[in-house]
Specification:
Number of domains of chain A: 3
CATH architecture of the largest domain in chain B: Orthogonal Bundle
Largest sheet of chain B: none
Shape of chain A: flat
Order of helices and strands of chain B: HHHHHHH
Helix content of chain B: 55-70%
Oligomer: heterodimer
Order of helices and strands of chain A: HHHHHHEEEEEEEEEEEEEEHEEHEE
CATH class of the largest domain in chain A: Mainly Beta
Shape of chain B: globular
CATH class of the largest domain in chain B: Mainly Alpha
Largest sheet of chain A: 13 strands, mixed
CATH topology of the largest domain in chain A: Jelly Rolls
Structural class of chain B: mainly alpha
Number of strands of chain A: 18
Radius of gyration of chain B: 20 Å
CATH topology of the largest domain in chain B: Rna Polymerase Sigma Factor, Chain: A
Number of domains of chain B: 2
Largest interface: A-B, 78 and 72 residues
Structural class of chain A: alpha+beta
Number of strands of chain B: 0
Strand content of chain B: under 5%
Radius of gyration of chain A: 23 Å
Helix content of chain A: 25-40%
Distance between the termini of chain B: 32 Å
CATH architecture of the largest domain in chain A: Sandwich
Chain lengths: 322, 188
């Protein structure tokens, strides 16, 4: 029945939407749905294939928008009004068919945002030799036409950058600029500070201002308040350790450790003010957010963690432990 | 989840994942190959911290399944080209887009653009945030002040429209199920 098929198509699309961040139980339910009727799998294949097929086209599609578009005004002001062309939408497509590739290149929205949820990691390849891994809770902006541009709006990311002297890769962090010289480096931006750590090669911090060169094994801290830049040593194998579920600290304040854990685990964590500034040294291995992980963190950080519906709270360890 | 923990979880879920692959239309031997690839990936330790093991393993299995199927599609098309043999162009050589490829791409783009243009305004905006900006359903829902299930309805409608458009799926076109053989589909 045609009616039936329509429903199946709608269900297939709904499954595809939910599966993007589904948990094991949802996938299990999806699997059962497939088993109910052969047509379910056929319908799903079509949705999935269409979604894959549009990937290379999306960057050139213009999305006409309502006036109340969510705009990141501070980010989009980096380049004057790149979105004006959106309004004409379909007309531009017709024009581009005639005008050829050049028109196609110009009517796309050049910059786009990538956001990761807490606990999620995503890798973005800008070109064959340049890869950026976004940690959880991170927002970055890229430019479809300029693979040598990236902007870290918030959070943390690890950069593997192909060096090109003629066209150096430049990372924007607010007003600050980080220029690579053939590198692997990690950058964290929080409300308190920006931290850059280099594990291979060299980067230059604010080449047009302070012009600080950082080599492998060096980290730079640029506090949001005050102007003093600090350069400190960092162990090479710990740079971007979050990718492997390992966080290493040498005297970092507990508040920073909590912020890192938030990104990696996707849990909101608040720290009792009495211990927020306490120095943490050592390494933490992450493998989820279950009770065992909590217990391990309590031991490693010498705190007691209360897991509530709104997240975790770190308090001074109760007398019973240690 | 440490890598070994993830691998153990994989072993526990292996029968379910195998069943899933058969239901997706994989043959018995393909399902085995795919799960073998997944286990190798897990053992190579190139996995980050994982917040939800089940979803992660299903996703990874699905990705390997798609890679596998794309490979199979290429092989079939190559054989078709061989039989046809009237074109001087070597098959599977699309790194340098020819003028023809450019035309096809523009045609595809025009089709997709018209699908997007015809979506209701809100559906279009939500689809862009989900598919282009990579935002999650809860984030979009909270931002717009609507329920997550309402966001899902908008998205499902958008995907339905995209899926029924006459887009040429090309390299990523799944093989028709009947070409993939029916043996081993007892999972269904």
């Amino acid at each position: 029945m045609a009616r039936d098929l329509e429903q199946i198509r709608a269900d297939a699309a709904a499954w595809h939407v939910r599966l993007r961040d589904a948990d094991g139980a949802e996938w299990e339910a999806f699997s059962d749905w497939l088993a109910e009727d052969v047509r379910h799998g056929e319908a799903y294949d079509i949705v999935e294939a269409a979604d894959i097929a549009i990937e290379p086209l999306l960057s050139a599609v213009s999305f006409r928008e309502a006036a109340n578009d969510h705009g990141d005004a501070d980010i989009e002001s980096e380049r004057p009004a790149p979105h004006r062309r959106r309004v004409v939408g379909g007309l531009f497509v017709a024009a581009s068919l005639v005008a050829g590739l050049f028109a196609w290149q110009t009517f796309s929205t050049d910059r786009y945002l990538v956001r990761t949820a807490g606990g999620e990691q995503r890798t973005i390849a800008l070109d064959a030799g340049t890869r950026i891994v976004l940690n959880g809770g991170t927002t970055m902006r890229f430019d479809r036409k300029d693979p040598r541009f990236a902007s870290l709006v918030e959070g943390e990311a690890l950069f593997h950058v192909r060096h090109d002297k003629a066209q150096p890769f430049t990372l924007h962090v607010g007003e600050d600029r980080i220029r690579d010289a053939g590198t692997i480096f990690n950058v964290v931006k929080t409300a308190e500070a920006t931290r850059v750590a280099v594990s291979e090669g060299k980067v230059v911090y604010n080449p047009d201002a302070e012009n600080v060169s950082l080599g492998a094994g060096q980290a730079l801290v640029d506090p949001a308040t005050g102007t003093e830049l600090r350069v400190e040593p960092v162990a090479l194998d710990t740079v971007g350790g979050w990718r492997r579920g390992r966080l290493v600290y040498a005297g970092a304040p507990l508040s920073r450790v909590a912020a890192d854990l938030e990104r990696s685990l996707g849990v909101a964590i608040s720290v009792d003010r009495a211990i927020a500034g306490r120095a943490v040294s050592g390494s933490i291995v992450l493998d989820g957010k279950g009770p065992l992980q909590i217990e391990r963190l309590e031991h490693a950080l010498d705190v007691s963690i209360i897991a509530g519906p709104a997240g975790w709270t770190m308090k001074p360890a109760s007398g019973a432990r240690r | 989840m440490t890598d070994s923990g993830l691998y153990e979880a994989f072993l526990g879920m292996r029968p379910a994942l195998h069943r899933y692959l058969l239901r997706r239309g994989a043959r018995e031997d393909e399902a085995e190959d795919i799960l073998q690839e997944v286990s190798l990936t897990l053992l190579s330790g190139k996995t980050g911290p994982v917040s939800e093991t089940g979803g992660y393993l299903y996703r990874m299995t699905t990705n390997h399944f798609l890679i596998h199927r794309r490979g199979a599609g290429r092989r079939v098309r190559r054989e078709e080209d061989w039989v046809g043999a009237h074109s001087g162009d070597p098959p599977d050589l699309d790194e340098q887009p020819s003028a023809e490829a450019g035309l096809i791409a523009r045609e595809q783009l025009a089709i997709l653009q018209s699908v997007i243009d015809r979506l209701p305004e809100r559906t279009r905006a939500i689809f862009r945030r989900f598919r282009v900006d990579g935002e999650t359903r809860p984030v979009i829902a909270a931002d717009l002040g609507i329920s997550v299930s309402a966001v899902e309805k908008h998205l499902a409608r958008a995907y339905e429209a995209v899926a029924t458009a006459r887009l040429r799926l090309d390299e990523d076109k799944p093989l028709p199920r009947h070409l993939r053989g029916e043996e081993g589909r007892h999972g269904a």
